[in-house]
């Protein structure tokens, strides 16, 4: 049975589960898996070192493991999970979007964005999405399946390797060596394909793998991880009990239930006030400010009075509003707000003393809105 707050997902008849992978398992489970094929348990730690710390995925590089054991260990704990369909880059090479094909043919996306002071990676937690938000390409495609913990983690592992190997540029005007300069990942956002809290256990498992100390995990900071949700209230309460210090981002998109019922259909189940109350609980337990994500859509949700209403809801709370100029999908009636409407909306929120910023728009040249690249491939 699903855990409280976790939505159910019925796989298509005959669908296979993703192959078991090192990143799906706890350190103790890895030892058990290694011992089950007659290998010494300490080989599990060696494999973890190669995968998480050294990013050495070719068995030929595992020189501390007998050659006769490498292929068997790879088959059992490091099977191929996903392959790159293609990379597309823009912004002078500082933004790279990757389309992945999973073992069963499902398509997902991840994006690496390099700024002068940080590197952010946006990752997927599901193939498709079941939330059905009408302005989102992924939501309109529907849900295909949940990703495994390892399929989530491997997107980040590959991103860290790409940065280490200098595959992500610094921009022609950055003055720091241009493309080919190694970099370090600083932020991870669960804002790619899928609703993370609808794949709760695997997303939390991924966060544990990302933040466990090397070699058990990648040794990243929880404070650099943001988990986005459209507002699955029971799962938000459950997340507050995990003892995490990740940031929570709430994709609100409307301050009133009447409009949000249309833009975010799950709002018919959990209303704006319920969603925000759950967010404040998470903030109190984690000590982190909540990010309120709001896609500005021309003549739909960008009226100044809605900005005022949003400011009133958030006044005095530990929150920051992140306004997102909509990156329209091909053929969609939804498009970005006019500059003057955007400015008025910002002013209406700021009048209540609520911090508000407009997100840097990246990736428009490369089907930047989540789900567009996968949709084009289909």
From TrEMBL:
GO terms for molecular function: 4 iron, 4 sulfur cluster binding; metal ion binding; rRNA (adenine(2503)-C2-)-methyltransferase activity; rRNA binding; tRNA (adenine(37)-C2)-methyltransferase activity; tRNA binding. Reaction proceeds by a ping-pong mechanism involving intermediate methylation of a conserved cysteine residue. It comes from Streptomyces sulfonofaciens. [4Fe-4S] cluster binds at residues 129, 133, 136. Binds 1 [4Fe-4S] cluster. The cluster is coordinated with 3 cysteines and an exchangeable S-adenosyl-L-methionine. It catalyses: adenosine(2503) in 23S rRNA + 2 reduced [2Fe-2S]-[ferredoxin] + 2 S-adenosyl-L-methionine = 2-methyladenosine(2503) in 23S rRNA + 5'-deoxyadenosine + L-methionine + 2 oxidized [2Fe-2S]-[ferredoxin] + S-adenosyl-L-homocysteine; adenosine(37) in tRNA + 2 reduced [2Fe-2S]-[ferredoxin] + 2 S-adenosyl-L-methionine = 2-methyladenosine(37) in tRNA + 5'-deoxyadenosine + L-methionine + 2 oxidized [2Fe-2S]-[ferredoxin] + S-adenosyl-L-homocysteine. Specifically methylates position 2 of adenine 2503 in 23S rRNA and position 2 of adenine 37 in tRNAs. Belongs to the radical SAM superfamily. RlmN family. GO terms for cellular component: cytoplasm. This is Probable dual-specificity RNA methyltransferase RlmN. Its EC number is 2.1.1.192. Coiled coil: none annotated. One of its GO terms (biological process) is rRNA base methylation. Gene3D superfamilies: 1.10.150.530, Aldolase class I (3.20.20.70). Pfam families: Radical_SAM, RlmN_N. It is found in: Cytoplasm. S-adenosyl-L-methionine binds at residues 194-195, 228, 251-253, 327. Signal peptide: none annotated. Keywords: 4Fe-4S, Cytoplasm, Disulfide bond, Iron, Iron-sulfur, Metal-binding, Methyltransferase, rRNA processing, S-adenosyl-L-methionine, Transferase, tRNA processing. The active site is at 109 (proton acceptor), 370 (s-methylcysteine intermediate). Residues 115-365 form the Radical SAM core domain.
């Amino acid at each position: 049975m699903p855990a409280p707050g976790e939505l159910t997902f019925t796989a298509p008849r005959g669908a296979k589960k993703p192959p078991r992978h090192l990143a799906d398992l706890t350190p103790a489970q890895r030892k058990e898996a290694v011992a089950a094929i007659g290998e010494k348990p300490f080989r599990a730690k060696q494999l973890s070192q190669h995968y998480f710390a050294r990013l050495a995925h070719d068995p030929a590089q595992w020189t501390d493991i007998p050659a006769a054991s490498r292929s068997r260990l790879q088959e059992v704990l490091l099977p191929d999970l996903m392959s790159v369909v293609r990379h597309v880059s823009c912004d002078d090479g500082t933004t790279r979007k990757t389309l992945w094909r999973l073992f069963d043919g499902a398509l997902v996306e991840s994006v690496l964005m390099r700024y002068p002071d940080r590197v952010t990676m946006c990752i997927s937690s599901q193939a498709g999405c079941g939330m059905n938000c009408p302005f989102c390409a992924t939501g309109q495609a529907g849900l295909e399946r949940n990703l495994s913990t390892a399929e989530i983690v491997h997107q980040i592992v590959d991103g860290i390797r790409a940065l280490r190997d200098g595959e992500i540029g610094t921009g022609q005007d950055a003055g720091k060596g241009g493309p080919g300069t190694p970099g370090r990942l600083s932020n991870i956002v669960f804002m790619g394909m899928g609703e993370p809290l609808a794949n709760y256990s695997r997303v939390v498992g991924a966060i544990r793998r990302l933040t466990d100390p090397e070699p058990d995990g990648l040794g990243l900071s929880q404070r650099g991880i943001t988990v986005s949700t459209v507002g699955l209230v029971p799962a938000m309460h459950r997340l507050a009990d995990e003892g995490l210090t990740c940031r929570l981002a709430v994709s609100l998109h409307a301050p009133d239930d009447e409009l949000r019922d249309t833009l975010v259909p799950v709002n018919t189940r959990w209303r704006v006030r319920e969603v925000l109350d759950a967010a404040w609980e998470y903030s109190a337990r984690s000590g982190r400010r909540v990010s309120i994500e709001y896609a500005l859509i021309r003549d739909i949700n960008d009226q100044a009075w809605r900005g005022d209403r949003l400011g009133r809801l958030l006044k005095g709370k530990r929150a920051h509003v992140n306004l997102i100029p909509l990156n329209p999908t091909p053929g969609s009636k939804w498009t970005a707000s006019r500059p003057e409407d955007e400015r008025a909306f910002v002013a209406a929120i700021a009048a209540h003393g609520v911090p508000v910023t407009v997100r840097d728009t990246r990736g428009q040249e490369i089907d930047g809105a989540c789900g567009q690249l996968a949709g084009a491939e289909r």
